[in-house]
Amino acid sequence: MDASSDTMSGLAVKLASLAGLMSATLFCGLAPLCAVKRLGTGSAYSATQGRALNLAFCFADGVFLATCLLDQVPNYLKGMHKAFDNLGIKLQFPLPEFILSMGFFLPLLLERTVLTYKDQLERLALLVELSVQSQGEDKHGHAPVTQDVEEEPGCKGRACEEAASPSTDPGWCSTVRSFVLTLSLSLHAALQGLTAGLQRDGRLGLWLCAALLARRCITAPCLALKLGQGRLRRSAVAGSVLLFSLMSPLGGAVGVALTRASTSSSDLQQRLAKFTVEGVASGTFIYATMGEILQHEAGYAQSRISRLGLLLTGFAVMTGLVFINI
């Protein structure tokens, strides 16, 4: 009777901790939207507000960079190698690193496919518009006006067509990377919640939830800032923050359910599957983080030292949280 009551009380504490984690993450994530009214609306910022937001974006870049290099990737590689060691499998091929690479190339393929499809639609719309205009001119008895297009030397066939194709819109790239960033962070949050839910020791599970809470209070507002920087609407930013907030409790609930019906062999299989998904999520997170940092840092020529200082500050803050949780 006492054992069952202790189990129920531990379960209640764990679920309450996950609910508190969700509430705190949602509050911190929506705070930038409430503080900056124009964030995610596409409206122009004032000069002072624009500079402040640019510095805040650099801080967020540092946070995500530290999360990627010091948290996600090392934990994934360590857990993956440990899972294979427990299964008695000695790898001759760097499978964990290969899974990480596939996670990196998957969003790259997605982004290139979306942009190619978008360019084809724009080219088709342009051809339809020109066709409608020429038909209208023919009906009114006017010959279509043609202009001699000077062909560049060495430009023939498909090469000329590719040269005349629409240029890649950096806004679309940023939108795709924002989607990838949200997806990878949400998967990582779900897996961390799963780890907390799988803990049979109530105190250890509570400590993991507290550690996640400290990180979420930093990561959630940074996610909202980066999504606002990616020209997403306020509703899309709020929905992404809500999704990110729900993933840890959802993963924790799944972990609690798995602890009630699991064996030692199934535990190893679950860990292997968990780390495989985490490897793909870590690879996508590397792509989204590096792509956003390189794109936005290359696009600003002012306040380089201040921007670098804020990036290093964000990196240092997240490094401190990772160090405390070791």
UniProtKB/TrEMBL annotation:
The keyword Transmembrane applies. It is a multi-pass membrane protein. Keywords: Membrane, Transmembrane, Transmembrane helix. One of its GO terms (molecular function) is zinc ion transmembrane transporter activity. The chain crosses the membrane at residues 12-31, 52-73, 93-110, 237-258, 305-324. It is found in: Membrane. Its main location: membrane. GO terms for cellular component: plasma membrane. Pfam families: Zip. The lineage of its organism: Eukaryota, Metazoa, Chordata, Craniata, Vertebrata. This is Zinc transporter ZIP1.
